[in-house]
Amino acid sequence: MTSDAAITIRDAHKTFKGGVQALRGVSMTVNRGQIFGLLGPNGAGKSTLVKILMTVIHPTLIDGDLLGKPVGHRATLRRVGYLPEHHRFPVYLTAEQLLHYYGGLEGMRRPERRARIGELLDLTGMSAWARKKVGGFSKGMQQRVGLAQALLHDPELILLDEPTDGVDPVGRREIRQLLLHLQSQGRTILVNSHILAELEPICQQVAILVKGKLAREGTVAELTADRQRWEVEIDGPEPTWIDTLKGVDCRTEGTHHCLSIGGDAAPMVQQMIDLARGEGRTVRRVERIGESLEDLFIRSLEESGEADAATPGAASAGKAGK
Amino acid sequence: MTAVLSILHESWLSLRAQGLFKLTMGLNLLVIVAFASIGFTDTGVSMFFGLSHADSEHVNANSPWAKLLYLGIFSAIIVNVWLAWIATGLALLSTSSIFPNFVSQGAVELTLSRPISRTKIFLSKYCGGLLFVVMQVSVFTTGAFLAAGWRVGAWDPAIFLAIPLITLFYSYLFCINVFVGIWTRSTLTALIVTLVFWFSAFSLRTAENLVTRFVYSTEIQMQRDDERIGELMHQIETAHGPAITTFETRLDEQQKSLEANRTAHEKLEAWQGPLQVARWLVPETSGTINLLKRSLEHDASATFEDLMSGELFRESPRRNRNADFEADAKVSDRENARPVWWVLGKSLGFEAVVLAAAIWLFRRKDF
Ligand SMILES: Nc1ncnc2c1ncn2[C@@H]1O[C@H](COP(=O)(O)OP(=O)(O)OP(=O)(O)O)[C@@H](O)[C@H]1O
Ligand SMILES: [Mg+2]
């Protein structure tokens, strides 16, 4: 693969003891400098994939590279930051001691750690809590400390498993801005999240996992392009001419109607406006709408071909024969 | 190296945060103060800094046995009861949770995802767990060293052997604890299995010693029967008249006794073999601790047991002592004569095997 890929995965498989097939042949590429969103319903295998990259879980089969080295190469992990989901810190450590501990595990020397810890506690807004025990922190505060430990050793690649879990709206926005800031420094970020509206404005690339298989991969623009449409909102009863226009949908919204048509049918939109105005109706809104990530997500589930795609949990050897 | 030090430092911080660690430390100090409160006067022994006094003609400030008694109290009572059972139990209670907590979901990822191998993480964490005992025993031993120096002038650095020996002893139990902790991720299971193992090792040693003691005692009795039979035969040859019948009845009795002892001996020996083999397989828990007593007494002319049983002050050794008593002495001689390599070697071998299994499990497990 080209050197500008931070992560390449080809044919990742993981079957847990007991036959749970968490990953069933996933291939994807994360380019350097990108913010990459990894989406999927509960139990799709997102965390499993990230844990395989971090050597926490052994893959059944994988052919992949992380920053140019094969997945599992230990020294490379020094260049990767990781925030696990539902992480639990030793409660008796203060935020500062905790960061010293994890910095030490990365092989950072004490003076180096000391300088970085100050910076990161500032960055995550936790400076005032440096000398307090993390056991007494709220969920969102622990998440901030978690982010700090992921960034401590100045990693090129950052893997975040649900980083905004439990963080308040202001904090979420701060985290989004932080991710953009990190990206502007040339770092690559892979984010696992369920909150699609949050990822949409910052991700260049997304992959959607369903039951351990890749349902979609591409840029947000690409994936939503063929689902753009025009919407025209008009007053009055349902127009009679609606049937004469091909491909127009009509839905009633209270006292007015919303007509929608494919994104490439601009001339038809003019026609609809003319017809409506000819009848003396008020045109309330004309808008070109892209598919939201949420729509894409739901559509991917529906189109994935998995019988029970919408129910949580992975496929198992017995159930989804493979 | 930085990573290893970080893990050890973290272990120390976790100990310091533990109530049980402080409690055990407090109890340790209390025991040492009690030990230091024993002193010797011209007429006997004083306890609780002179609050209580026991007169003794044998053990007093002028007697050579004061030192033996004082060090004996340390190695046979304080170490064997307090450190080997109570403090060890407390240590197990508080260290059983180390590995289950460490490998719990959400915590283990934060450590495993670092550029340091799982084997290194495991071994550092293992040593971190032993830190509990090292700290406790170090403080304790220093106190005992000062007390013994002050009270009986025994500035004996051999006391400090307690630190490695007790730590070794503890590590035989801790390796089982860690193995089960990683396997099941359950503190309670790890604790229970360790306790069961501990008592099994203890029972096995006790059973083996007991059977051996009976083997010895039947051997001694058989020997005495033989001698007695020889004497009686001689008496029968030289006797006249009705005395012969008396001797013959006695001879008959003696031969029956010999037969009974021989049967018992055979039965016991059948048990002794398997027990000895089983004992080979488990670590020498008490044997390791006993090394301390052995090294404290190695140049003494008498043992603490001789002193306590009063054997030391008898004019001449009792003749024809009870066979059981002699067998007891023989068993304890056998225990004391076991070479150090046997005691430590097979125990460390056991520990190495268990640790290798634990590392294998830890390396291949998905978290
Ligand atoms: N250590 C493990 N042992 C056995 N099964 C596991 C293990 N970890 C995950 N699984 C199973 O693998 C499947 C995928 O889990 P994973 O955590 O990767 O899902 P996810 O996509 O991250 O879900 P969520 O959005 O809920 O976090 C699940 O069915 C889960 O039960
Ligand atoms: Mg997950």
What would your notes on this structure say?
The complex is a heterodimer of chains A (322) and B (367). Chain A has helices spanning 46-53, 95-105, 110-123, 139-151, 169-184, 196-199, 220-225, 266-278, 293-303, and strands at residues 5-15, 20-31, 35-39, 61-66, 69-70, 80-83, 157-161, 188-192, 205-210, 213-219, 229-235, 249-253, 256-262, 283-289, 315-316. Chain A is elongated. Chain A has 9 helices and 15 strands. The longest helix of chain A has 16 residues, at 169-184. In chain A, strands 6-7-8-3-9-10 form a 6-stranded mixed beta sheet, sandwiched between helices. Chain A folds into 2 domains: 5-223 and 293-321, P-loop containing nucleotide triphosphate hydrolases (Rossmann fold, 3-Layer(aba) Sandwich), CATH 3.40.50.300; 229-289. Chain A is α/β, with parallel strands linked by helices. Chain B has 367 residues and is an all-alpha fold. Chain B has one domain (2-219, 273-364). Chain B has 13 helices and 3 strands; from the N terminus they run ααβββααααααααααα. Chain B has helices spanning 2-16, 19-36, 65-95, 98-102, 108-112, 118-152, 162-184, 187-238, 243-281, 285-296, 304-309, 323-337, 340-364; strands at 39-40, 44-47, 52-55. In chain B, strands 1-2-3 form a 3-stranded antiparallel beta sheet, with no helix packed on it. In chain B, a hairpin with a 3-residue loop joins strand 1 (39-40) and strand 2. The longest helix of chain B is centred in the middle third of the chain and has 52 residues, at 187-238. Chain B is flat, with a radius of gyration of 27 Å. Classes of the chains: A alpha/beta (322), B mainly alpha (367). The A-B interface holds A 16-17, 51, 54-58, 74-78, 80, 82, 84-90, 92-93, 97, 100-109, 149 and B 2-3, 5-7, 9-10, 13-14, 16-17, 104-117, 364, 366-367. The structure holds adenosine-5'-triphosphate and magnesium ion. Adenosine-5'-triphosphate binds at residues 16, 20, 22, 40, 42-48, 85, 313-314 of chain A. The site of magnesium ion (MG) has 4 residues of chain A, from helix 1.
